[in-house]
Write a structure and sequence with these properties.
The complex is a heterodimer. Chain A contains no helices and twelve strands. In chain A, strands 2, 5, 6, 10, 11 and 12 form a six-stranded mixed β-sheet that branches. Chain A has a four-stranded antiparallel β-sheet with strand order 3-9-8-7, with no helix packed on it. Chain A has a two-stranded antiparallel sheet with strand order 1-4. By secondary structure, chain A is mainly β. In chain B, strand 7 and strand 8 (73-79) form a beta hairpin. The radius of gyration of chain B is 13 Å and the shape is globular. Classes of the chains: A mainly beta, B mainly beta.
Chain lengths: 119, 115
């Protein structure tokens, strides 16, 4: 079963506008971590932001913020003031706890959203 | 600049060749990973090393052979590959995986073409 769902294969946004990239996840574990990565056409996977399942506040990192709605199992990425350099593939990913309570080594990725920022 | 260094950046090899991909990190991370990524697809986990021991093998064919000589280095030995193995191979590292949910830091990847 799909653990991470990104329903937007592609998105367009005007430069300087804000954009929201959707991510929903499926887990029965109360302890997990959610991540967003950016992958430009060059191929490198760039870590953007992290949200823990027990974190009380939504994570923010500069122009990136994570709209975490635990009951809905959604972890949407908001990019404010889009720049041309934001054009890239964006992946939502999840890491669950293992049976011993530690983090598993498996980072599971969604199918990604290709964001194009237009001037 | 990424703190995980992968070499080579590009590799073209025949189906009878033997080659190796290399990955190095100096962040003190004790977990290292190999991912395979086909075009327009998400990365797929292949192998995980934790404290220099292989902890996860995602049923990868034996023509891919990982090696972790020390905590900073990770190799992927390739032998008798098939054209469908052509992909971007990404190396990553992270802090102690028993510390909850550390992010993975990725290298720039090796674009492999098997002819």
């Amino acid at each position: 079963a799909q653990k991470i769902t990104q329903t937007q294969p592609g998105m367009f946004v005007q430069e300087k506008e804000a954009v929201t990239l959707d991510c929903t996840y499926d887990t029965s574990d109360p302890s997990y971590g959610l991540f967003w990565y950016k992958q430009p056409s060059s191929g490198e996977m760039i870590f953007l932001i992290y949200q823990g399942s027990y974190d009380q506040q939504n994570a923010t990192e500069g122009r990136y913020s994570l709209n975490f709605q635990k009951a809905r199992k959604s972890a949407n990425l908001v990019i404010s003031a889009s720049q041309l350099g934001d054009s890239a593939m964006y992946f939502c990913a999840m890491r669950e706890a293992d049976s011993d309570g530690g983090a598993t080594n498996k980072l599971i990725f969604g199918t990604g959203t290709l964001l194009a920022v237009q001037p | 600049d990424t703190e995980v260094t992968q070499t080579p950046k590009h590799l073209v090899m025949g189906m009878t060749n033997k080659k190796s991909l290399k990955c190095e990190q100096h962040m003190g991370h004790r977990a290292m990973y190999w991912y395979k990524q086909k075009a327009k697809k998400p990365p797929e986990l292949m192998f995980v090393y934790s404290y220099e021991k292989l902890s996860i093998n995602e049923s990868v064919p034996s023509r891919f052979s990982p090696e972790c000589p020390n905590s900073s280095l990770l190799n992927l030995h390739l032998h008798a590959l098939q054209p469908e193995d052509s992909a971007l191979y990404l190396c990553a590292s992270s802090h102690d995986p028993t510390v909850r949910f550390p992010p993975l830091h990725f290298g720039n990847g090796t674009r492999l073409t098997v002819t």
